[in-house]
Amino acid sequence: MKKPLLIHRILILGILLFCSAAWPAQTMAAEPQRVAVLPFKMNAEKDLSYLRNGIYDMLSSRLSDPDKVQVLSRTEVEKAVAEEAGPAGTGPIDEAAARRIGGKLKADYVLYGSLTVFGDSLSIDAKMLDVTGTQPPVTVFSQSSDMSGVIPEINRFATEINTKVFDRQAQAAAPAAVPAAPRTGSQPDSRAHPEKLLQGGAVVGGDARVSPFIVRKDQLLQSANFWKSPNYKYYIAGVAVGDVDGDGLMETVVVSPDDIYIYRFQNNSLVQIQRLKKVEDRYNIAVDVADINGNGRAEIFVTALNRYKNAVTSFVEEYDGTDYAVIAKDEPWFFRVTDTPVRGKVLLGQQSRMWSPFKGDIFEMQWDGRAYMPQSEVKTPSGINVLGVALGDVLNDGSETLVAYNSGNNIAIVTPVGEVLYKSNDRYGGSVQYYAGQKTDKGQEENPIYLPMRILVRNRLQDTGKSQVIAVNNHEAMNMRWNRRDFTEANIEALSWDTVSLGTDWSTRKMKRFISDIQIADIDNDGSDELLASLVIKAGDIILTSAKSTLVAYELEAAPDGSDASEQ
Fold it and tell me: Are 137 and 130 in contact (CB under 8 A)?
């Protein structure tokens, strides 16, 4: 009785297996691909949440495909983002974090990015990742001069994803309106950056090498990796980078006229780790960082003037393993650290003569165990102040050559015997820092003698045979305010020696107001150098106005062909 029943069951099972094998493929459709669209990071000082929502809606509508692609709900995604990046969503979202979020959501793909406001222009930087990491990402970087360019770039990005990831043919997207800004009676936030950081300069769109910051002499733009700090409510007099606590990581040291601020780059932002209050009655005008005494921790050299600005009274701070302490004070030296191609960082010093900060001799300085003492003299012509001096392989001949701003803000190349080999026709630099000169008449309130700002030499690798002089160009207003300098815009230029003169290799786009200092250093500890500039938006030198400054950086990375971009 049991055997026929068993045979009957086997026959039924066989029929079912046959039917399932012969069933049309379309009736056994695979589960739809799950896509998590993370909220875009908005790098702007105004509320652009409406634009973030609009980007999500655009991407969701263009990627969704019934039974094939499911875009996860915004609520579900934002909850996972908050768990990863904090309730405010302010934590870093890089590839690793995006994949972790995608994994928590059981998504197949995760899309994340940022939108950054530069003055009246906007840039989009986005990436679509396979959560498993087995497929190459789909990326987009583009800049638009206004809001009208956002929609085409989102459409292009969605089309590229549909084609490369989901193997769907491009379809004409319905015209989309720019997401409406809240009606406040003022200009839309997306177009009204308070400082209007970058000024002018045409930008090529639709190219992965688009940059909002640096333009080569052939008008092609370098790869885009631009960063801006928040605004600081103080005047940045100087900035320097070095390992001041001996932990192997770089810190960014900023001085205001009163205080010293020490920052560490974390989570794509500078985090303040120390603030050193004013040392007695001084006015800080410059800062340098270098391990001159050789104990493994870089000293902080602060060039300062007395309250009347007619005498130099500099000081040096150093970390002792527990706290920062002054190891030299009341120093009559203008300090400047220069990075030489062979000897590394060298400390230079200059004592100003009475009423004449451009006439003192310049020396290399060394630590003798108790103080920083002058050693060998650096020969220079008259009219040179050490704050605007650098040593490097300027002539591309393997030797150390001095380059400096003279008192007229021309760039001079000086031979080892102190003779001027070359002087630029154009003026560069331009600082608001001044030394109080002797008054020429009884009614004169001040006689400011303006000091130079930093100049750098970017020494090249031996196989390139080329160095660059990095110089600021602060553009002065035509009118003078109370015998004070007034700058309206600024840019940075890289110049190289062509055996006859210094020619421009590249320059940054113009920025509003003026640059007070520059550095080339690995500020974010990622193994590659950045060009760092302190941009003063408001100097705070007018009654009832407060100072405002910011830091901007551009990564000096390799060009697409593998050579250094600055050599193109």
Answer: yes
